[in-house]
Automatic annotation (TrEMBL):
Name of the protein in question: Putative neutral zinc metallopeptidase
PANTHER family per UniProt: INNER MEMBRANE PROTEIN, PUTATIVE MEMBRANE PROTEIN YPFJ
Membrane topology listed for this record: Single-pass membrane protein
Main location: membrane
Molecular functions per Gene Ontology: metallopeptidase activity
Alphabetical list of Pfam families matching this protein: Zn_peptidase
Species name: Anaerococcus tetradius ATCC 35098
Domain of life of the source: Bacteria
Keyword Transferase appears in the UniProt entry: no
Subcellular location: Membrane
Gene Ontology cellular component terms for the protein in this record: membrane
Keywords annotated in UniProt: Membrane, Transmembrane, Transmembrane helix
Length: 139
């Protein structure tokens, strides 16, 4: 809710909801189950990498959704920039910096601000499900 209070706009809400719907899509595809099973088998650090991939895929799906909003004529000037501004504030790196802690990449569970922005942009660019699997390539 803090995110929505800080970035009061219709597209911020759409972005956050699209990310969460992305998790629903992952559930329907069996990705949530597969990644959850890995939690028991991997170290915390290795599982964090899986978690980052899962979160970035949800951001990719949010970008895909934004593409379809654009195609339907629902995006307004500045909406994509708004999404990028939101993404730049919600990365694990930014959250750790705001908490005045050292940035520790191995503790990331959602990805850096730059990774989140890139995932959204890729979803907007490719707007297909095939490219969304790239986040799991290095695991």
């Amino acid at each position: 809710m803090q995110l929505l209070q800080r970035w009061r706009s219709d597209f911020t809400l759409a972005y956050v909801l699209a990310h969460e719907v992305g998790h629903h899509v992952q559930n329907q595809l069996g990705i949530i189950k597969q990644t959850s099973e890995l939690r028991k088998k991997l170290s915390v650090t290795d599982y964090n990498r899986v978690s980052v991939a899962k979160e970035l895929q949800a951001d990719y799906f949010a970008g895909l959704f934004a593409y379809y909003l654009k195609e339907k004529g629902y995006l307004e000037a500045g909406d994509i920039e708004e999404a990028m501004n939101v993404a730049s504030t919600i990365g694990d790196d930014r959250i750790q910096e705001m908490a005045r802690r050292n940035v520790y990449v191995d503790s990331f569970t959602h990805g850096s601000s730059e990774q989140i922005k890139e995932a959204f942009e890729l979803g907007f660019k490719y707007h297909d499900i095939n490219h969304s699997m790239k986040f799991f390539d290095d695991l």
